[in-house]
Amino acid sequence: MRMHGDFKGEELRRIVKEFTGPIYQRPPLRSAVKRMVRVRRVYYIEILEIQDRDVLMRIGVEAGTYIRKLCHDIGEVMGCGAHMAELRRTRAGPFKEDESLTDMYRLLDAFTIWREKGDEKYIRELLLPVETGVAHLPKIIIKDGAVDAICHGAMLSVKGILRVETGIKKGDTVAIMTQKGELVAMGKALMRSEEMVSSRQGLAVAHMKVIMKPGTYPRMWKGRSV
Amino acid sequence: MYLPGGSKREILVRDEEETDPAYGKPPYKRSIDELLEAGFINLDKPPGPTSHQVVAWIKEMLNVTRAGHAGTLEPLYWGGDIPKLQVYYL
After folding, report:
1. DSSP letter at B65?
2. A157 and chain B in contact, CB less than 8 A
3. What ipTM is given for this predicted complex?
4. What whole-number distance in Å separates Cα of residue B37 and Cα of residue A92?
5. Of B10, B19, B41, the CB nearest to A127
6. Are residues A6 and A59 in the same domain?
7. Rounded distance between C-alpha atoms, residue A115 and residue A113, angstroms
8. Given pLDDT bands bounded at 50, 70 and 90, which one contains residue A49?
């Protein structure tokens, strides 16, 4: 963020604290979404370095938060004005700047080495299984017999459940997994974790987004839910 | 400080079963061809081309029919050549 005037670092640090937590934002003119005021959460703003009028910050925000607007607003409150000079996304959900991060050149090299030499070591590091995308979601592990029904769009009843992670509330997005660790589907929880374990019957998860191909596990069901 | 997905989770057991090794397999045992059917690439996108272009390149390079990206909603109009962490899915 580049400030448009001189300022005190101490004051910036103080002001920036005001911007953590829920904030109001309206998407800018050039945006893909409807331009209505909405609430977004700023999880943290960490000031890493200040050099003259340049401020280096690490910011954690809810998806859909406009950093450009955030910088502008910080500038307004500071009085001198500011704008976002540079932005680098370092994390999106479960994806971070770690060993899995690659670029087009490395991807092409790894792929070519596999295709031409049969060495899959390099490409394997870069192709992340679908399960990586749900690393941040609470998991429900189900019986083998329930898997194919879910693949066909059935809802999950508690009878199909083996294990549940704690902390699930009604309405939470959950990941349904096999015992082998494969992702079957994502869905919305209709019960809390404790209820899923203690209830004799009832629907635990609905609104499935099915990932696994039907037929991966054999068909062992009839009816609308397992 | 509130962070989504930050708290550690524990496991509650409702029932026990042995999984049949005859079908399905753990993700780490998938072949490269299987990984190319569905998965993610954590890509540091080059600053110039659009995400759309990069998706096209990846489809061609890896010879996959469907690919997409999950990235920022904001286009690169601020004029910088800024590399972005984006996620491409197959």
Report:
1. S
2. no
3. 0.80
4. 22
5. B41
6. yes
7. 6
8. very high
